[in-house]
Amino acid sequence: xxxxxxTHPPESAEVRENMSSAEMVVVGEKISxxxxxxFLCHTMGSHGSRAPDLAGIGGRxxxxxxxxxxxxxxxxxxxxxxxxxxxxxxxxxxxxxKAPISLTQPEVLAVIAYxxxxxxxxxxxxxxxxxxxxxxxxxxxxxxxxxxxxDEASASYDNLSGDELFNKYACMACHSLTDPVQLLGPSLxxxxxxxxxxxxxxxxxDPDAVVTEGFVKGVMSATLQGAxxxxxxxxxxxRTLVEFxxxxxxx
Amino acid sequence: xxxxxHHKSSIIKFVISFxxxxxxxxxxxxxxxxxGADVDYREFPFFGSRIAIWAVGELHLMYAAFVLAVPMFALxxxxxxxxTGDKRYDKLAHELTSLLSVSFSFTATLGAILTFMLMIxxxxxxSYLISIFDKTFWPYGLLFFAEAGFLxxxxxxxxxxxxxxxxxxxxxxxxxxxAIMFIANAWLAFMTSPxxxxxxxxxxxxxxxxxxxxxxxxxxxxxxANICFGxxxxxxxxxxxxxxxxxxxxxxxxxxxxxxxNFIAISALLPLPFAGYWxxxxxxxxxxxxxxxxxxxAFSWLFIIxxxxxxxxxxxxxxxxxxGMERIEGAEKYKKFVKYLLATITVCFVVWATPHSLVxxxxxxxxxxxxxxxxxxILGVMSAKNTAVNIMILTTYISFLLYRRGNKVATVxxxxxGHSAQFLIFAITIIFVIAIGVIGYFVEATVRIGxxxxxxxxxxxxxxxxxxxxxxxxxxxxIVGQIKWGEIPARAQYMLFFLAVTFTWxxxxxxxxxxxLRLHWHVYEVMKDTSxxxxxxxxxxxxxxxxxxxxxxxxxxxxxxxxxxxxHKKDWxxxx
Lengths: 251, 576
Known about the structure:
Helix content of chain B: over 70%
Largest sheet of chain B: 2 strands, antiparallel
Structural class of chain B: mainly alpha
Strand content of chain A: under 5%
Mean pLDDT of chain B: 87
Distance between the termini of chain B: 34 Å
Oligomer: heterodimer
Radius of gyration of chain B: 25 Å
Strand content of chain B: under 5%
Order of helices and strands of chain A: HHHHHHHHHHH
Number of domains of chain A: 2
Distance between the termini of chain A: 68 Å
């Protein structure tokens, strides 16, 4: 008799900006069990052979490192798990904000609330500023652009037209669609004549691959990173946007 | 130059295969240049894309394993024949090589189909992989061309060149074949442990992408596993021919061929778990979470199935050897040891196949005090399993040793000392392996993981040192009886079929684990699988798919063998 179970990709828990501490604990627990995959290695109430037992961590966290509050310690454990290793264990954990776990900042806050609740009282709120950030624009380590976001909010924009997406992602701030005039970036009014669909796609997902003469390399990629474009855009939206731009023939 | 019909058909087969390969490569490049990334996925009718790719990919791998492995031991056998002057070896090597001709075409065709399916069904992923590995495709194509040249000149040049030139052709075939496999391994290893890219997934260094974390462990594991698999398939072929043999000479020849094939398979099987440990530890070192998924998560039960299958392989291989000893005059004196060997392997098999957590009802779990059985749970951990598999390997080696000396008596002056030294080495090694296993229960996980290394090294040392002693011990040995080739029970041949099927099944299941442990990632941590198949199926479903693939493979390979057999049939003549 062998267990028969399908393993599905972890689902994102709904994280709201105005959650109470109690709500954060509930959501944090859900993330820890699901998307966070914490209990693949950690245990709860028994000696962990792979990673430390999390029971009571809320009470212990403030005493782990001198000068660190419990929130500081838990945040460091999630963002830089190799910085402090509990005696008897190996540094096997990957940063929770990076792939394959890829927790967002609000999700990290919810997980910290849950961990604080294990033997302590949650003091973290959705407005707490941590020393670390999961936001790619706030760190030097952006999330891989090829990781396609499953975020429901982004997916809800899948029905927008190319024109609407162009506005949503503020492309018009740097590119003109109607005239052959250069703004911060080259005009796109005839981009469909100049570039194939594949080249347009490449210009969006890897803007530094080929840079139009007279423009500075790195500006667009930095702008997109800062706006969280890579996190938000979905394959469907990319298709729509590429199709829309490929129709721009200069007339 | 006038070519025979057979030569012409082989050349046509090669041209078609190479044409298909070139066409596939060209279309891929065209696809990558002209909007191949517009569509993420396309659906394969009826079966779905995942099963379609799974089946074709696995069949391609099975064929490739066979086509790469057979030249390795064919060359070795030919070399033995060249050095000893025994024509039987040369004939055997030639017959083994004859199995390659059709198989090579099937391998290439399946590879081309796989390539087409990847770019049609998974265009975004394929485009990405091309963007990383485009530089490797050109040497791959050239090496493929060179392999065809070496293979056909090696096969059709049999007896046409001087032995040294012919051996050099075989060496070239093996070097080129291995290089092809190493390149292809880089692609799939990258999917599991990507490197040589920046955080956005863009290529930084092709060499670093090739030389990723698990590339070399996969290479080594596959070389050994291919030899194992190729030997088993060749042995099954011999078994098949043995059962249909009409004359004593034929039976003797195919009995011997089956023995050699099985010897090769089991010789490669013995070090295979060690290569597997290395691969597993590198996966764990790359991402511990992946190691957890592999051994303690979704796939842990597949390792129980693997343990059952490998245990059956060891039992089957030993049984074949014990049956083989019946045709050796003088081996009767070793029969009394068989029951002890069988008992040891059975106990080790049971320990190795014991799961750590039992599937139990709530009531049963309450009675046990948890998911772990109070007694059996102790055996379901790595300390016990590593100990069991090491002793199983040593026991199988002892069976080989007894078989090898069945009709011989050592005549060297230091024979008693040699026997004692061998016995001492075995005894010390077994005690050491068990002691390390017991210690594993009393140390932290960090220490326990490292304990498998001294166990492995001690077993390898024992096998190597005992073999060296044995070679000198039985030099100029007195032969007390003959090996009556052909006088082996038919059930031994069925055992060869059993071993070949089990090897193939195991290969399919482990291939699934290796690929599946990426879970919902095409390229781990870089490119998510967002298709409808982005989930890990149940073990029952996966093993059913693998079983179907194994059946298809054997239907194909039997068809290949039948085609090969046509070479020796009489020409058709009209009944006039």
